[in-house]
Structures are given as C-alpha cells and as structure tokens.
Amino acid sequence: MLWVRQLLLEDSVAQVMVVVGLVAATGIALGSLKFRGVGLGVAGVLFAGLAFGHFGVSLNSSVTEFIREFGLILFVYTIGVQVGPGFFASLKRNGAPLNFLAAGVVVLGAILAWGAYRFLNVDLAGTAGLFSGATTNTPSLGAAQEALRRLPEVTREMLTTPALAYAVSYPFGVVGIILAMLVLRVALRISVKEEEKCFRAERALLHPQLETLHVRVTNANLEGMELAAVPGLEGSGVVVSRIQREGSISVARSDTRLRTGDILLAVGPPAAVENFRVVVGESSKVDLRTDPDGLEVRRIVVTRKIVIGRTLASLGMEASGGVRFTRMSRSEIDLPDPMNRRLQAGDVLTAVGDPAALDEAARGLGNSMKDLNAPQMIPLFVGIVLGVALGSLPVFIPTMPAPVKLGLAGGPLIVAILLSHIGRIGPMVWYMPPNANAMLRELGIVLFLSVVGLKAGGQFLETLLVGDGLRWLLCGAAITLLPLLVAGIIGRLFLRLNYLTLTGVLAGSMTDPPALAFANSTTSTPAPALAYATVYPLTMLLRVIAVQILILATGG
Prior knowledge:
Blueprint: H1 2-9, H2 13-32, E1 34-35, E2 38-39, H3 44-54, H4 61-119, H5 124-134, H6 138-149, H7 156-187, H8 192-206, E3 211-217, E4 239-245, E5 248-251, E6 263-268, H9 270-280, E7 281-283, E8 296-301, E9 323-330, E10 333-335, E11 348-353, H10 355-365, H11 369-373, H12 377-392, H13 407-422, E12 424-425, E13 428-429, H14 434-465, H15 469-494, H16 499-509, H17 513-521, H18 527-555
Antiparallel strand pairs: 1-2, 3-6, 3-7, 4-5, 4-6, 8-11, 9-10, 9-11, 12-13
C-alpha cells in the first residue's frame, strides 16, 4: 500500500487530482441530500472542501490555483454562451430595474462595511477584506490591496489582513446568498413551480404561439394584386404558405397575383393574422393541409456555417424556389417572419414545398444533427483567450488609485455573451450543444468550489475562534444577508419580479457563480442565468470601485 500513501501525501499533480476528485464526489453527494425538498446543491462541494482542508490536506498551490481559475473561467464562459442569444432582448425589456436593484445591494453592502469600521472597531484593512469576502468578489480584494498600498504609513500587516478577512467571510458569503434565496422563498410563500409557469407565460406573451388561419379572398380591391403588395402584410410577421385556386394547391409566392375566391393559408402572430383576414376577406373552413397536392411540410435545422448570421431573404431562399418558410423555432420559442431574421446555429425552420425543393433548401441550410451536436473546439478556446485578455485589460479611472479590471470572471462572461450573440465570425461558430454546455458548466463550478474550500478550510476554524475571527464572521454575515433580504423584498413586493429572475439578480449582485449554480439547479428555465448576466457587468464594476472609495474615504 506504499503507492497509495505516496499518491495521497506526495506533492504531485496526481495527488491534487485525487484529492480534488474526492472533494468533488463527496460534495456532489452531500449536495444531493434534501430535507423537505431543500438541499445544498452544488454548494455542498464547498463544504466538503472546507472539511478536507480542515483535516490538514495540503496541495501544490500552483496546481490548485490553476484548477480554481480554470474552473471559474469554464463556468462563466458557458453561462455567457447560454444566455448570449437572448441577452440583449432581456436587457432592453427589464434591464433598468434589475440593474437598479443590484446596484442597491452593492451600495447597502458598502454602507454596512463602513458601519463596521466606524462603530464596531473593525480595522480598515479588515473592513476591505470583509466587503470583498462577504460579497464573494475576488477582483475587489485585489483592488482593495492596491488601494491600501497608496495610503500613508501602510504596514505589511495591513496588506495581509484583507486576504484573511476575505477567507473568513467568503464561505458564509457563498452560503449566505443561498440562504437568503431560501429565506425569501419560505417567508414570501413562493412556489417554484408556479414561478416557472409565470415565467413561461410571460415569455409566451412576449413571443406568442403562431396561429394558422385559412382565409378566402373576397376583397375585390385585391384582384390582380401581388401577394407581397397586400396592405399591412409587409413587416406584420404573417407568412402565406399555400394558395388554392380552382381546386389546385400550390406554394404561395411573393409575386403570386391574387384572385377573388382564392383560399390562402396564413401563419403568424394571432393579432397580425386577424388583421390580415380583415384586409383580405373571410375565414374559410377548407383545410389546405389535409390535401397537400404533392406538397410537403418539413422542419429544417440550421447547421451550415456559411449561412449563420444571414437572413433567408439575403440567401435568396424565396418562394420562387418552390419553398415557403412559415416559422422559425429558437430555444423552443416560435418566431414569426423567418425570412428577415438572422439565422443562428440550431434554429429550426418549418418549410412548405415540393420534395425536390425542400431537399435543396435542406442542403443549403445544413440540416445535419451530427454537425449540430459536434462541439466546436476552436471557437471555445478562442473565446476563452479573448475573455481572459479582456479581463486583464486595465481601465484607468480618474481619482482611482488602481486601474479597474473585469478579471477572470468578468472578461470571459462578457466575451461569451457578445460572441454567442454574433453567432459566427468567418469559419468560427459560437454555438455549443446544450449537453456539452451543461457538462462544462458543472465541471467548472465543481472544480472552482473544491479548491476554494480546500484553501479556506485549513485556517477557517482557527481564525474563526481566535482574535477577530468571530467579529469578522458576524459583520461579514450582516454585509451578505441584509442587502440581499432588503433587495429581495423590494424586488418581489414592489417591483413584482418573478422569483426565478430575482434569484439571478441576487446572485449577480454578489457576482457569485456558486449561487447562480444553485439558482439554476432549482429550475429548468433560463430565468436566473438571464438576470445574472444582465446585472453582472455593472455590479462587477461597482464593487471594484466601491471598495476603493471605502478605503480612500476612511483612510485617505
């Protein structure tokens, strides 16, 4: 058994991987345990790491540092890829109230940290560490240390104190965010299932299910008019896919000239379809779909790289080619007017036409599930490189003692959002199969939490029980919990936010990936991730600036 002893105790990469693997497996098992339907989820990995670290497990710091940062990069990058396609629409819809709420959490936390310094005799360096650790924001810790160096008569002890206060307050910072979510859920009597229904209903209201209607042409003013020239049709989202004339059914083309008595099959948003009926004529009980007359309906998946980012209209895929595209499905949402929407990898198009024309359209768009499910490795690593570069870029702000950086969490997230929204640059496509995204996301957060727990576990209890540790812990808990509970109550009772969206705001206001992972684990909807990505960039910047203002205002 000598080799087992060497494997566990010898300072090596193998030792690190074995220990991290044991922590991860133990933590995942712990997180899966539930009491009355509530469990720790992925946060169980943090507690397992604390336990292993407390019992003296010591690992190579260089290797663990890489694992921690790489895990964080994987997590935030895949979150960005997941929410990127719908991020800007979400930002336009409700970005202002969500960012206002998140900014309030930052400001209230800074006020509480200043109160700990002013009234509870917490030293300035410890206050900076508490503000960073209690809000789980590592970049603000770096900014605090830089700001302290600018103070007169700074000592070595002052420069090391923030990291210790950070280590004491960080574990509860992670757990406290999750605790705040659970407290709000219980206190406000929230049902996650009902919130999911409300979220899906809201999305359905913004993106209503498309309606199909048969319309008989009775308006004599339309006699001989081209279909594309029908008043109100352009830009309405209505697509006319088929036309029946004298018992014969064919694909409706933009240049088809209408005649009184024609029967049209229209697809589009309910209100727009009804407006089309009012203009054209009257509803018909004839169903053109039951008598296809040689026409077929197919669902075609967009997988060909060269078409991503372009529209069907710009590709020349008009009805003149014997195919009519009636709808587009993206992320399980039906979208009208498919001809003028920029294509993204994975879009599913419903098309009507003769078999030969549909075959040609499918070849032009790809329609290969093998290509869709194949991971795009070059874009993945290019995106990570660009994200790390952006996170390392210093931004100098007047009067600030140190440049502001987005860090390894902020840079990859923002780059992933932008690239997945763009979709394609040259031959590189920023699309990730959902299963691959979920796997990388979970792997990243588990690696990150395993190392965080291992590093903090060794000195956690000693610092907690000796000296300022208990006071730091209590102050840090207040800085974590109070702003979140206040923001949660305001967001729910006054802003009427969906609880799932609110959990994303709370996690984003603390720039805390583990809390987001917990929020995601409670629902099958993307609501938490969308809200998190909406508030994260502003919150990250505010936290880095706030800690520097806190130091300069009190110790400058």
